[in-house]
Design a protein that fits this description.
The protein has helices at 4-25, 33-42, 46-57, 61-79, 84-107, 136-154, 167-189, 195-226, 255-260; strands spanning 236-238, 243-246, 248-251, 272-282, 297-302, 308-314, 327-333, 347-348. The chain is of the alpha+beta class. The strands form 2 sheets. The protein has a 5-stranded mixed β-sheet, with no helix packed on it. The protein has a 3-stranded antiparallel β-sheet with strand order 2-1-8, with no helix packed on it.
């Protein structure tokens, strides 16, 4: 579920978009729109055209993708782990694309009948682009620069934790608002969109941005507590030798966390461990890769009775490790855990709910 604030923003934006769309879905324009289009195009001057072409360029597909990729790399460089915040810029941008395609095709609104000033970049031509509602550039501008505002103005990128508001947040908000507003105006000025196309794009982008930030915030909170979101803290005990293996464990259940494991993360400390559970015993399903893992880990494989069937010290960047016997559980832990288990030992830990 979304937390209260992002939920209010997302739902409010959806409701406003639905209300804005009623006349457009019926094939009508909002009163005064044509006059606004004529007013915007009457302002055309060579110098102003260059400035507004540049603003439009900043929300085109390729520059937006480049900006989002750089933002993800920058956050990864600060955090040294593959956190939800690292993935947020690209997830938010890529996730917004279906809204752009589906909504424009569904509404089928024609662009204004005025002369068109081309972009600085050759745009990708696709049948859905003949339609104008909502504006894809408006969606992209809110998603991309709203994400940057969230990362730069609200979060401590090194720890992933929230920090107190500072005076720069107000300046960042003003700057992003002016940028997004300028991009929206440029679409009308260049003759490619109605004003409500831009407003609708802003609302769609804002709703998706709220959902994306809620996802990243929730995942980040889980990462900070246990190293894996939606985790439950328990203990792993070696019943055969009466030894504690780990006092802080996490079940990795989601498809994403099961696939990524410890890729791009910080080293586990003593006492920390991740537990992965398969539906049945298997060799191939419990194999792991150490690509993009920057530190050695202990890997312990167990059968359905939770008896150790294999163990190894997995080293960074090795492509493949698999147990010699079929296993149902496998544990990734600090290397010191290997000294506390032997093949055949019975381990105790609660099964995930």
């Amino acid at each position: 579920m979304l937390s209260s604030r992002p939920a209010v923003v997302a739902l409010g934006s959806i409701v406003l978009f639905a209300l804005l769309s009623i006349p457009i879905a019926l094939g009508h324009d909002w009163p005064g729109e044509w006059a606004l289009v004529l007013w915007a195009t009457s302002l055309r001057r060579p110098a102003l055209t260059v400035v507004l072409q540049l603003l439009t360029f900043l929300s085109a597909a390729r520059p937006a993708l480049g900006i989002s990729a750089v933002a993800s790399v920058a956050v990864f460089w600060r955090q040294r782990r593959l956190s939800p915040q690292v993935m947020l810029p690209l997830v938010a941008l890529v996730g917004s694309v279906p809204f752009n395609v589906v909504l424009r095709t569904a509404f089928g609104r024609l662009r204004p009948g005025v002369s068109y000033i081309p972009n600085l970049l050759l745009e990708v031509h696709h049948p859905f682009q003949r339609w104008s509602y909502p504006s894809g550039h408006a969606i992209t501008s809110v998603v991309v620069y709203g994400t940057l505002l969230y990362l730069l103005g609200q979060n401590d990128l090194e720890t992933g934790s929230m920090r107190r508001p500072c005076r720069w947040q107000g300046l960042l908000l003003i700057a992003v608002t002016l940028l997004v507003g300028g991009i929206g105006f440029s679409r009308v000025y260049l003759g490619v969109h109605w004003p409500t196309d831009v407003l609708g794009g802003w609302l769609v982008g804002l709703s998706w941005l709220a959902v994306s930030i809620a996802w990243a915030s929730r995942g980040e909170a889980g990462d900070r507590s246990t190293g894996c979101p939606s985790g439950e803290v328990h203990m792993i005990h070696n019943a055969t030798r009466n030894l504690a293996i780990a006092s802080e464990i996490t079940y990795c259940r989601t498809f994403l966390r099961r696939g990524l494991g410890l890729m791009g993360r910080r080293p586990l400390s003593k006492g920390q461990a991740l537990i992965f559970v398969e539906r049945q015993e298997s060799i191939t399903a419990t194999a792991i890769t150490m690509l993009f893992v920057f530190f050695p880990i202990a890997v312990i494989w167990l059968n359905s009775d939770k008896r150790v069937v294999d163990k190894t010290l997995a080293r960074p960047w090795r492509p493949f490790y698999a147990p010699e016997r079929p296993a149902r559980y496998y544990i990734e832990a600090h290397p010191s855990a290997l000294d506390k288990v032997e093949i055949g030992d019975k381990l105790m830990f609660p099964d995930p709910a």
